[in-house]
UniProtKB/TrEMBL annotation:
Family, as annotated: Belongs to the glypican family.
Pfam families the UniProt entry points to: Glypican
Protein name: Glypican-5
Membrane topology: Lipid-anchor; GPI-anchor
Length: 574
């Protein structure tokens, strides 16, 4: 049994320990650590900061019944810092999404620029290797056409119907002068201009210009819309990253983040429920973006899925030179009829034969990076889009779950640990936790959400607009300038076309023509090897004599041959 004296000694020791504990607690609640952190954050001058806790009757937000390490000036600086911290957290939370969209927008634009350059090179090579006498004169029109393609794709106010027509208007005088009636126009600019203006009346290229307009409408416009939508996505993220918070939110952020400092609790973190109430209140207007953002990503996905075949810009651009070749063949084979029509419209010019300069396209300089005979699946633009959409799909509910993400990943204390509830350190938060969105904030105990946010409403309107554009393109609705084909007409165009399907109005002719696909390698002949084709010569009357013994035939039967699967006119005969 413990006697009375022993008990009194033990009690005295315990009391001493308690007193020491209180003394240590008082040391911890000094303002030294608060001063260090305030100075380390460069929130303001250290002069005037309390060395020890003081009465805080002048404070507006960080009100406490206990002595405080904060002054009114510190509280004001803390409120500014809380807003800056929030913007930094928003930028960190959206950085992965922003990088995903901006990186792919830049990559898609770069890829499209490369495709445009490749298509321009293929068209230049076609002229240089097959229609050499007109190649230099055609160079400016080819360059202008693809410049316009790029301008349209990247948002300029140019009309595809106009630049397609302009290209074929400029091509007709060259074809007429070098293939149909060599040397007729010579340097007679007035007569060449008359032929140019007559192109739309005499239709020397059949329905190929209209087919190209249709293909441009089905491929350029969706790609342009896709790029514009990606840029809008970046704009949405940039705007929400720098959103200005109302006064009620700023005070709530101050109370959650820095009011604990005033009590010397510099290492405390807010309780999860408390953090959710504050963040869901501050981001309530931003959460209203969620259904529209979800629809935006879904519409991007639908448009991407629809961009295939003749809706695939890669297919259209890299096959353009083949259709140009078909157009030239069409005009040459109908040369006699076209000559009569031009004579009626422009009169009979004086024949002044001239020798046109020939081009010398340096294939060795241009072939680098242009081998697409076998395109690996992962290299195609369609597969890049698919990979991007698969990554973007993970962010469909980004704005709806942003408040929760910030609390879980950045701000709140882990479950089971003591945490700050806005007034003191507690085991758990006992207030009601509200949901996301404006309607759910009526019962928020931490933040009062009032009115609407003009900036958020403007973003929602922009998203609604681009969603309509995306959905319109994905359902293949023709734009005002897109010309859809009404039928084949059974003409020569369908028989020589190498890029023809039912959507282009040239299917099922039964002519047995060869359907070709683009097979361009690093080989391009400087001269066609006549041993590879039927040896033919053009007579003065415009007909063909077959030296292999097949006999005399008409122009429409024997004027073309095939090299590498591409129907061509025989070079060097005009």
């Amino acid at each position: 049994m413990m006697d009375g004296q022993t008990w009194r000694v033990g009690f005295s020791c315990l009391l001493l320990l308690v007193l020491v504990g209180f003394a240590q607690s008082e040391v911890v609640r000094s303002c030294e650590e608060v001063r260090k952190l305030f100075q380390g954050r460069h929130l303001g001058p250290v002069k005037g900061l309390p060395d020890s806790p003081r009465a805080g009757s002048d404070l507006q937000v960080c009100i406490s019944k206990n002595p405080t390490c904060c002054t009114k000036k510190m509280e004001e600086q803390y409120q500014i810092a809380a807003g800056q911290d929030m913007q930094q957290v928003l930028q960190t939370s959206s950085s992965t999404l922003k990088f995903l969209i901006s990186r792919n927008a830049a990559a898609f634009q770069e890829t499209l620029e490369t495709l445009i350059k490749q298509a321009e090179n293929y068209t230049s090579i076609l002229f240089c290797n097959t229609y050499r006498n007109m190649a230099l004169e055609a160079a400016a029109s080819v360059q202008e056409f693809f410049t316009d393609v790029g301008l349209f794709l990247f948002g300029a106010d140019v009309n595809p119907e106009e630049f397609v027509n302009r290209f074929f208007d400029s091509l007709f005088p060259l074809v007429y002068n070098h293939l149909i009636n060599p040397g007729v126009t010579g340097n007679n600019r007035e007569y060449s201009e008359c032929i140019r203006l007559a192109r739309r009346d005499v239709s020397p290229f059949g329905n190929i210009p209209k087919r190209i307009m249709g293909q441009m409408g089905r491929s350029l416009l969706p790609s342009r819309t896709f790029l514009q939508a990606l840029n809008l996505g970046i704009e949405v993220i940039n705007t929400t990253e720098h959103l200005q918070f109302p006064k009620e939110c700023s005070r709530a952020l101050l109370k959650m983040q820095y009011c604990p400092h005033c009590q010397g609790l510099t290492l405390s973190k807010p309780c999860m429920g408390y953090c959710l109430n504050v963040m869901r209140g501050c981001l309530a207007h931003m959460a209203e973006l969620n259904p529209h953002w979800h629809a935006y990503i879904r519409s991007l996905e639908e448009l991407s899925d629809a961009m295939h075949g003749t809706y695939d810009i890669e297919h259209v651009l890299l096959n353009f030179h083949l259709l140009v070749n078909d157009a030239v063949i069409q005009a040459h084979l109908n040369g006699q009829k076209l000559s009569e029509q031009v004579n009626k419209i422009c009169g009979h010019p004086v024949r002044t034969p001239t020798q046109s300069p020939r081009c010398s396209f340096d294939w060795s300089k241009e072939k680098h990076g242009m081998k697409i005979s076998v395109r690996n699946g992962e290299e195609t633009l369609a597969n890049r889009r698919k990979e991007f959409i698969n990554s973007l799909r993970l962010f469909r509910t980004f704005y709806g779950g942003l408040a929760d993400q910030i609390c879980v990943n950045e701000l709140a204390a882990a479950d089971g640990l003591p945490c700050w509830n806005g007034e003191d350190i507690v085991k758990s938060y006992t207030q009601r936790v509200v949901g996301n969105g404006i309607k759910a904030q009526s019962g928020n105990p931490e933040v009062k959400v009032k009115g609407t946010d003009t900036v958020i409403n403007q973003i929602i309107d922009k998203l609604k607009h681009v969603i309509q554009l995306l959905q319109g393109r994905s359902t293949h609705k023709p734009d005002k300038w897109e010309l859809l084909q009404l039928g084949s007409g059974g003409g020569m165009v369908e028989q020589v076309s190498g890029d023809c399907d039912d959507e282009d109005g040239c299917g099922g002719s039964g002519s047995g023509e060869v359907k070709r696909t683009l097979k361009i390698t690093d080989w391009m002949p400087d001269e066609v090897n006549l041993s590879d084709v039927k040896q033919i010569h053009q007579t003065d009357s415009g007909s063909i004599f077959d030296t292999t013994g097949a006999g005399h035939s008409t122009v429409t039967e024997s004027m073309t041959f095939t090299v590498m699967g591409v129907v061509m006119l025989l070079p060097g005969l005009w």
